[in-house]
Amino acid sequence: IDDGMPTYHGIPLFPNGIWQANGLTFDAKLRAFMNSLFLSKNLHENPEYSTDNFLEFRLGREVVDYMAEPYYPDSVYGSMELMPVKLFDDNLVTIFGRAHIGKNKKEQLLRFADGSGQEYTFKGGLTTLIKSLAQHSEGHLYVNQKVKSLSSVAEDLLLIELNGRESMRAGSVLVTTNPQESLSFLEGLTSEVAIPKVESTSVGTVFFKINKTAVKNPPEGQGFVIPRKSSYHTTKVVVLNNKWPLLEQAEHYYILVEFGRRLEETLIELADALVMEIIKNEVKEILTLAEEPLQVIFYRWEKAVPHFSLQQRQEMLDDDYPVDREYAKRGVFVGGNGMTGYGMENAIIEGKRLADEAIRYMKEMEKNNSPN
């Protein structure tokens, strides 16, 4: 895309922008242009239609595969093939839900444009958040604990078994682990309703330290994304020197490579050494490295990204969803990555919601048990 052409997650904000997109066929550009001008259909109101269906109707298949999908990693947004668009990214409805007509449309859409000011980062890294949270929970925080089971021992009392040898009693419990992990200790709590079975995707990250002189094809900007229909396993490459001011003048390049998508589990299941070799060879080819990286570190996140089907998601969005209702009656409030959404923003919103529900529950129990 031309640097002067405004985009949202790599997708042109305005119909004319599609003509500047490299890598699309003329037919794909024409379809996207015509659809964005004239087609108006409320697909976003139907939870049976995925984000993938919505964007294909509005912009065409090629735009989805080569422009939209790479900018929406599963680990942050979930799968656009399994998420209704209003839950996936409601801004897509605002931008592409209607034909590009109307008064002041340009000014309204420009506030969504990619660029400076659309992203926030901690100057001291993510540890800034962890240290801040620790200040409020010091003395009450258990770490390196494995929940083995959760059971109800009385109407208003829960028993948590930790590590198979220690028990803890609680009036209310918030569950925000991965849904696949939660199933192991929640299934025995009630026989009336169960958390829906979930398909989970594993992802990986490889960190490279590379001599700057060895990079013959340095990327522009902070990095790049790679579409699914590519021969590469790599999905995203970030040059940390260009992203973090702390590393801007560093002697070496520090590069973070992400890989792993839904239905692409083969690579992540291989041995660490083999995975690193495959990703290293891809990076060497993409960046045209003249020598081997100085350092390579591999991180594996198994079953990290849960995916529910469209039908499951439709049921979960119901205000009277039985899973929420039945567990809440027992003082258990269930959340976690993928339940209502993905990413840091969703985690904060969901954490506040679950805390409010638990506090209301405990106050109600205290009121009912009070002799006054």
Automatic annotation (TrEMBL):
<dbReference type="InterPro" id="IPR036188">
    <property type="entry name" value="FAD/NAD-bd_sf"/>
</dbReference>
<dbReference type="Pfam" id="PF01593">
    <property type="entry name" value="Amino_oxidase"/>
</dbReference>
<dbReference type="GO" id="GO:0016491">
    <property type="term" value="F:oxidoreductase activity"/>
</dbReference>
<dbReference type="InterPro" id="IPR002937">
    <property type="entry name" value="Amino_oxidase"/>
</dbReference>
<protein>
    <recommendedName>
        <fullName>Amine oxidase domain-containing protein</fullName>
    </recommendedName>
</protein>
<feature type="domain" description="Amine oxidase">
    <location>
        <begin position="12"/>
        <end position="358"/>
    </location>
</feature>
